[in-house]
Amino acid sequence: MDGLGLSLPNRGVLFGATTPDEMLDLAERADASGFFQSVWVGDGLVAKARLEAVVSLSAIAARTTAVQLGVCCLATFALRSPVLFALQWASLDVLSGGRTRLAVCLGSPTARSGTNFLAELDAMGVARNERIARFEENVDLLRALWSGPAAFDGSFTSFPEIDLQPRPTQQPCPIWIASNPNPQTLSAERYQRAIDRVGRLADGWQSTVVDPADFGRQWREVRESAERFGRDPARLTSSVHLMINLHDDEQKARQNAKRFLDTYYSTDVTDATMDRWGAYGSPETVLARIEAYVEEGLDVPILRFADSDQTEQLTIASEWLLPTLAARAGRTS
């Protein structure tokens, strides 16, 4: 395990799960604690409205000094103007002293994607069948612009040579891909394309709603894919976005988490999804679940407190769970 991440609920400010001030205070506490290597926010437009990701991370950058700043995941990546976004993210990397962690994803019309997903595409002038092609092209475009003067001739964006500045402090600036292909619902061909997209393009893989055994299997498949494309699989990083709720009464913890997640994702989260998404109960129960992923090769557990009282959950976690995890990752407070 390389370190812990803390996921901040920037959508939660819309329904009272947190406030902007509390979210920034949580980021400061995570930064000062020494327990966390990174803090993360989510992304959405109208399907899952929230404080915008790059703006949120800019505010967090101004309040922190050490933690990496990530987005898990940038669901609007295929919808954004890639040249403008290249400038925005490079600027964030410069302002933060090279602390960014960009995890991009396709977004998808699933229950957890919220409402009005197709309206979101329409509002941005993107056809549904263009998302994957735009996504892959935008990854190539970012890398080209962040490397130096570049021209680009793509299917959706083309321009003569330009020198976009500033370039990121990190060279290269990492781009992870968040992907959760389900072999039970996808054809074998589509499933393999999703795995290969990560193996071919990404500096890291991010997953969620996946149990430890399935995570381990897919992580092995991603690294095998990277090797087939002539890339060093040892240079890839893995992360999983996990929901947790800490309470001595496991039933109460699960109820609190479900209430939060139902509201956060505007859906009725099933028991099966809850089981695959995280852990709820005592610190020992949550630790055992996280360690099951680590045993399967997880590098970065990203923890979201699935509770309306974020500050209390962080306080409880700081008493034993976080010091224990940090010690096992070779980090101390």
Looking at this protein, list some descriptive labels.
11 strands, eight-stranded parallel β-barrel, 44% helix, TIM Barrel, 333 residues, single chain, two-stranded antiparallel sheet
Characterization of this structure:
It is built from 12 helices and 11 strands. It has 333 residues and is α/β, with parallel strands linked by helices. The protein has one domain: Luciferase-like domain (TIM Barrel, Alpha-Beta Barrel). A hairpin with a 4-residue loop joins β5 and β6. The protein is globular and about 60 Å long. The relative contact order is 0.14. The model has no long low-confidence stretch (mean pLDDT 95).
DSSP strand (E) fraction?
Answer: 15-25%
The main β sheet shows up as: 8 strands, parallel, barrel
Low-pLDDT stretches: none
Mean pLDDT, as a whole number? Answer: 95
Question: Can you say what the CATH homologous superfamily is?
Answer: Luciferase-like domain
SS-based structural class?
A: alpha/beta
User: In angstroms, what separates the terminal alpha carbons?
Assistant: 16 Å
Query: What's the helix-strand series?
Result: EHEHEHEHHEEEHEHEHHEHEHH
Instruction: Domain count, please report it.
Output: 1
The main sheet orders its strands as 1-2-3-4-7-8-9-11
CATH architecture: Alpha-Beta Barrel
The rounded Rg comes to 19 Å
Q: What count of helical segments does DSSP give?
A: 12
